[in-house]
Write the structure tokens for this entry.
Amino acid sequence: MHRILLVEDEENLQHAIKLNLEMEGYTVIIAGDGNAAIKAFREQKFDLVVLDIMLPEMDGLMVCEHIRLYDSDVPVLFLSAKNTPSDRIAGLRKGADDYLTKPFELEELLLRIQKLIQKMDKLSKSDSMKVPVEFMFGENRINFDSYEAWGVKGKIELTKKEILLMKLLIENTNEVVSREHILKVVWDYTVIPNTRTIDNFILALRKYFERDPRNPQYIQSVRGVGYKFVA
């Protein structure tokens, strides 16, 4: 079930959108201001954000900037009473995927949300197909279908989480993957736990695939951010 973060301070509109989205089968979490929206996004997993621009405490443009620091891929749809071309351009430049002006038809909003989520699902599927079933790096080999691997100490049976973590890192070779993103993708947590969970898995993977786990060649740390797989 897809989860949507709805950031809207107008209660009547908030409830109307939430009701209609739930009737379509979505799970909807509501935030009434910018700070609450950022807190919810950092602590939970969402497939799409519907974001009003005119919000108390912090406007939607700033909220979108914060969201993009944590997740560059999640679709963001702006709602706004501002309907000039410059307003729409400003919203898109801040990282929004779509921009719908108020007042709007609920049916149009539902269709736009459906299209954004379908597009995201297709991208996720194509991303998951980037890595071949059997992947080799250095003297190591991983079979993503059988969960078998051959590392520095011989054959290993990997767990599902270890396979998913390695696959995510390899899919993003030479790019930093944040701890928050790893937890959302690999563990699919609704509420994100302590990030030490990942650190412990990384230590285990280094023992499997690194000649010197303390000075890793392949699974490297990026201080304060996350990890990356180096080809």
Remarks:
- The longest strand covers residues 3-7.
